[in-house]
Amino acid sequence: MPRVPVSPVAAVGLVLAFALAQGTGVRWLGAVVLLATAATCLALAVPRVGWGRPLVVLAVGLAVFAASHPAADLVGTWRAVLTAAAVLGATGWWLVDRARPRVGASVVRQR
């Protein structure tokens, strides 16, 4: 099975969470999608690179999520969310997807 990249999962998850919350008017549904996205990204990333880098990506995700709210007043909601998703995706790519596996990372050998 090919390796699933973390960066598009994180970026698309953020956009889908916003779209669901905005479209339904039920914010907690968006929160559920955000939590599921974070858990999925951690599950994909930690075996590859350990806990450090994925936790930084998670912190950046929280920061851009928080920053997108006041930014929405300046540039509009979708622009703010898409910018936040782009920053989150780039961070995920830089720290996890392009990174070399950590020493001692679990590797499944093919027989």
Topology (elements, then pairings):
Elements: H1 6-24, H2 27-49, H3 52-75, H4 77-97
Helix pairs in contact: 1-2, 1-4, 2-3, 3-4
The portion of residues assigned to helices is over 70%
Largest sheet properties: none
Strand count: 0
The outline comes out as elongated
Explain what this protein looks like in three dimensions.
- This protein has one domain (6-97).
- 78% of the residues lie in helices and 0% in strands.
- The chain has helices spanning 6-24, 27-49, 52-75, 77-97.
- Helix 1 runs antiparallel to helix 2 (27-49) and helix 2 packs antiparallel against helix 3.
- The chain is elongated.
- The model has no long low-confidence stretch (mean pLDDT 92).
Name the descriptors.
111 residues; 4 helices; mainly alpha
Would you summarize the structure shown here?
By secondary structure, the protein is mainly alpha-helical. 78% of the residues lie in helices and 0% in strands. The protein has one domain (6-97).
